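Subject: Glutathione S-transferase

B.,
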Amino acid sequence: MSDSPVIILYDIPGTVAGHAWSPNTWKARFALNIKGIPYKTEWVEYPDVVDLCKRIGAAHTEIRGGSPHYTLPIIYDPSTKAVVSDSFKIAQYLDKTYLSLPALIPAGTEAFQAMFTNTIEQRIQNVMFPVLALATLLQLSPRSMEYFRRTREVRFGKKVEDFAPEGEVRDAIWKTSLGTFSEVHGWMGVNGIGKTFVMGDTPSFADADIGSHLVWIKLVMGTESKEWKDILAADEGRWARLAEALSKWEVVN
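Prediction pasted inline below.
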């Protein structure tokens, strides 16, 4: 285990600015940044994740094909010797351990935050993944690129290049993706005019979740891409405002 005096966040590097690109690990990164907790990043290539988890005693995050499946993010907190897997559990741990700092999951919202996170994964991340998959692949290191391609092609039964081929198929998937953002826009609109965050005026883990997907689109597709421009223009500018509000926490340590 590292002798770092601050929390270690384990993340998968890319070639994008700051190297951090994954929406899953950005949830934990936003959580640390919003709470203002010092940390440092240790970069782990995809093929090395399982060995890391077993070496530091990190729990698996799901059972896949009858076997434990290990994923990032993971944090190690030297002040408590805790090793925590899964972004939502990391947020819960940070709130419990660092009580004097802003809460990511305000009391009484635990079930809502868990449900919201699961819904975003199912209705946004999984829907738009085919469109972002190739750009995500191409910004990985050679070792992680091979792992990403092999595992995703086994899961989806086709080459990454065929997940969302240019033309009508890709356009239809992206249109559906924008529609899922619009659905979330409708939910957030219940808060009233001028409310930027899911909980209204205060950021929570739910905003870290949405923000992580905005960062993913921006970094792997590029700020001049059609996809990023579509997001900024969508839903009366809601996502542009949220991205701007979260930008002060869009930091890689």
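The first helix runs from residue 23 to 35.

T.
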